[in-house]
Structures are given as C-alpha cells and as structure tokens.
Specification:
Layout: H1 6-19, H2 32-43, E1 58-60, E2 67-78, E3 84-94, E4 99-101, H3 103-114, E5 117-118, H4 120-135, E6 139-148, H5 149-152, E7 163-170, H6 176-187
Helix pairs in contact: 1-2, 3-4
Catalytic activity: GTP + H2O = 7,8-dihydroneopterin 3'-triphosphate + formate + H(+)
EC number: 3.5.4.16
Keywords: GTP-binding, Hydrolase, Metal-binding, Nucleotide-binding, One-carbon metabolism, Zinc
C-alpha cells in the first residue's frame, strides 16, 4: 500500500490559495492545507484497496434468485475536476450454485470503488466486474444515479441534474425483462 504524501498535498494547497490571490497565512487559512491533506487521504483511500477483496467472504445458501441491495449512498471525486459527485448505487446479482456474499460486502465494494479519483461509468463497471469475477453468479446488474458538482457548481450550472449509469453482466446482458425487474424494485419505496 502506497502512503499518501500529506506534506506534498499541504504544499500544493498552499500554492493554490496563493495562486487565487489568498493570503495562506491568514488566520482562517493557516490550518487549511493540513485539513485538506487529511481529507484527501480519506477521500482517496480506495486507491489502496481492491473491491474484489470483499467478495472473498462467501456463504453457501440454497438460493439462486435475485439479490438486490439498493439505495447504497456513496460519494466520490470527479477525476476531471476534483470536485465531488454523490448519489446512490443499486447492486444486484443472481447467485450460481448457492454462492452468496454478505450484503454489507456489496456496500463496501461500492465505497471502496468510489473512494478514488473516479468516473461514474468506471465505478459501475468495476463493481459489476468484481462481482462476476469473484462470485461467478449467473449475472450482475449495477445502476448508479448521481449528481455531479462539476455540472452544478461550474460549467453549465444545472443543480439537480442526475446522471444514471447501468452495467449488465451475464444473464442481464440480453434479458430486458430481468433488467426491467431490477428497475421496478429500485423504484419501490
């Protein structure tokens, strides 16, 4: 695991503050570089973790029907602008040969994947591919809906706009009925 260079981040933040015309020695800003460095270390801790690790914990259960964990909250940082995006992930799979994992493992995989400079499309694919590789289910389907601050705070400035990405693997790839079933469950309150 590579350590985060907090000192380097602190220096960079100080340089940014000065570059935008701020006085980095001003009372309210003196500790800002340290706070930002600690925040980045936390926000990007997923860089040093592999979401597949969570799926090493398996159980055998007589169940080969849908498993869906929906409304998993997450936040990430857009790798294009280093501003946040956040939303909900919905993760589904159909176990093969009774191989299931703990429900919290699905949420942990979302969290780990999101905690790095990221694209929403990549988060969606990474989670589905990790499930397929480690659990060998009949299929996996991941839907992510998120609001991107790069569209809210800057550029087009459209708060409330949501981006939805979906990835289908296995039986979900060619079965619109199965995908529709997931979407109907996601819509349920």
């Amino acid at each position: 695991m590579t350590a985060v260079d907090l000192h380097k981040i602190e220096n960079a933040v100080k340089m940014i503050l000065e570059a935008v015309g701020e006085d980095s020695s001003r009372e309210g800003l003196i500790e800002t570089p340290k706070r930002v460095a600690k925040m980045y270390a936390e926000m990007f801790e997923g860089l040093h973790q592999d979401p597949k690790e969570y799926f090493k914990t398996i159980f055998h259960e007589d169940h080969e029907e849908l498993v869906l964990v929906k409304d998993i909250p997450f936040h990430s940082m857009c790798e294009h602008h280093l501003v946040p995006f956040y939303g909900k992930a919905h993760v589904a799979y159909i176990p093969r040969n009774g191989v299931v994992t703990g429900l919290s493992k699905l949420a942990r995989a979302v969290e780990t994947t999101a905690r790095r400079p990221q694209l929403q499309e990549r988060i969606t694919s990474t989670i589905a591919d990790s499930i397929m590789e480690m659990l060998n289910p009949y299929g996996a389907y991941v839907v992510i809906e998120a609001e991107h601050m790069c569209m809210t705070m800057r550029g087009i400035k459209k708060p409330g706009a949501k981006t939805i990405t979906a990835v289908a693997r296995g039986v979900y790839e060619d079965d619109a009925v199965k995908r529709s079933e997931i979407h109907s469950f996601i819509q349920m309150t």
